[in-house]
């Protein structure tokens, strides 16, 4: 099985005790069954600590409840006591896997570091936009997957070359075509001109109504993030409140004019979200829905940054921590978008 990962993964190095936003904070750590069995056998004081820290949630899954917002094994040096005493192999599967998302497809596996991790975010936000950072998987025997792989490559190139408003229009137009193909034909029989997505002016054409609809959806998406998605940290709640708060929202657009996020940072965030999610429709066939999720994710981060003055990279990292690592939050957002489309 071929394992693919973005080029910058080779330079990833955990910040450990110097991390400003440790993965051992805010999240409750799930403990997989093998690790629970192992913890039941650990002798001595650490074994007692492990067993007394273990709890079971309403679904019967084991976890370590947070203590003052942190994993109970995060020590004052901001290092893990379990890792220090017993080695990395003794930590839970989720700790060993983080910061990587692992996605398995027919014939290949993708391993992508999470934007929520400060060390990974630094790499994601410095990737060269003119190089082959995100690998293209080999051809598969699944026509839809091959269509999505080619579509993702075209979308990644578009995101690198155009500003967000234009790349969003081009990628949306391509997604509409791909959805039609996926719904009506055998995708392996179709010859689609993916080069045209970035080069042809036809893909950039949008009406004023389309643009207004996209911005209105962005506003409803932001409201939904505040009112219906699960919120992990107070910091995120405050950012959302400041973004959608009615008096603040009524401020003139001119008041935000100096606060546009750096375009290259927005391009890199879009490329990250495209890489992470554009192949997901291979499971449910809903290309338009996943495209809306990708574009609204970037649009929401852009708007939060503009309206709060908090740096775009910080906002995107927080979004990833709050949304990407909570499958229920992603499901809620997809359900919401499905109603809106
Ligand atoms: S968030 Fe990233 S850099 Fe920080 S401790 Fe975790 S893996 Fe290391």
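Sequence proposed for the structure above (341 residues):
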């Amino acid at each position: 099985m071929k394992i693919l990962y973005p080029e910058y993964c080779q330079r990833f190095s955990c910040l450990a005790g110097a991390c400003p936003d440790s993965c051992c904070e805010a999240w409750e750590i799930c403990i997989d069954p093998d690790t629970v069995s192992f913890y039941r056998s650990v002798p001595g004081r650490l074994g007692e600590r492990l067993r007394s820290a273990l709890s079971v949630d309403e679904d019967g899954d084991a976890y370590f409840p947070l203590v003052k917002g942190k994993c109970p094994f995060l020590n004052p040096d901001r290092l893990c006591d379990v890792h220090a005493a017993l080695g990395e192999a003794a930590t839970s599967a989720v700790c060993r896997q983080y910061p990587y998302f692992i996605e398995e497809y027919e014939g290949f596996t993708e391993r992508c570091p999470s934007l929520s991790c400060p060390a990974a975010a630094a790499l994601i936000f410095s990737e060269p936009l003119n190089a082959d950072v995100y690998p293209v998987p080999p051809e598969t025997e699944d026509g839809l997957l091959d269509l999505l792989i080619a579509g993702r490559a075209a979308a990644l190139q578009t995101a690198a070359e155009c500003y967000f408003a234009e790349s969003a229009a081009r990628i949306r137009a391509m997604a509409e075509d791909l959805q039609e193909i996926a719904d009506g034909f055998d995708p392996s029989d179709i010859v689609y001109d993916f080069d045209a997505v970035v080069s042809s002016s036809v893909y950039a054409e949008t009406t004023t109504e389309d643009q207004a609809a996209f911005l209105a959806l962005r506003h409803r998406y932001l409201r939904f993030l505040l009112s219906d998605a699960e919120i992990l940290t107070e910091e995120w709640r405050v950012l959302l409140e400041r973004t959608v708060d009615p008096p603040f929202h009524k401020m003139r657009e001119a008041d935000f004019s100096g606060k546009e996020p750096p375009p290259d940072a927005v391009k890199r965030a879009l490329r990250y979200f495209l890489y992470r999610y554009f192949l997901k429709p291979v499971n449910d066939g809903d290309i338009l829905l996943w495209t809306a999720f990708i574009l609204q994710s970037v649009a929401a981060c852009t708007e939060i940054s503009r309206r709060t003055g908090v740096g775009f990279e910080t906002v995107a990292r927080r979004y990833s921590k709050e949304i990407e690592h909570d499958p229920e939050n992603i499901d809620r957002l997809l359900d919401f978008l499905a109603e809106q489309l």
